[in-house]
Amino acid sequence: MTTHVSGAVVRNTGVSYALTVGKTTTKVVRIKGATFVRKLPGKWVRLQKPRPVADPTTSLAAILKGLTGVQTVNASTVAGTLPPAAAKSAGIPTGSEPAQVTVTVDAAGHVTRVTVHTSTQAGSTPVAVTLVTSYSAFGRVPALHRPV
To answer: Would you state the pLDDT for residue 91?
Structure first.
């Protein structure tokens, strides 16, 4: 079964994303103090107990600060490892081995892509996890629309 998550940062500290598992897609908006969820097609529901939301900016900073063994891959990409303590502070699942991280920057020095390869446990089953985050639209903030 394939799982795909794609989303965007909301108000600099929240996230909006679509989670697709098989043929079912669920949209989620997490901001401080509120979580909205809907299965497609369907109506938005505000959860009574909002789920904690990772601050995307803080997570990126934790990854960049915690990266060790950094090596240059090419003119715009570096790779390194993320020790378990740094991964935990970035909200990344950890396994027995440090996460492998690749960071790509543009000519202006903006981080445009971060790829993390790690593993975790689901019960007694080891699970390989690949997280890919792309960054764009620097200096622009799109209009926010309240979930209806």
So the answer is: 81
CA distance 47 to 32: 13
Output the pTM of the full model.
0.68
pLDDT tens for 47-85 read 888 766 666 777 888 899 999 999 999 999 999 999 998
71 neighbors 78 (Cβ within 8 angstroms) = yes
**At 58, is the secondary structure helix, strand, or coil?**
helix
For the purposes of burial, counting CB atoms within 10 Å of the CB of 74, is it exposed (0-12), middle (13-18) or buried (19 or more)? exposed
- How would you write 22-34 as a 3-class SS string? CCEEEEEEEECCE
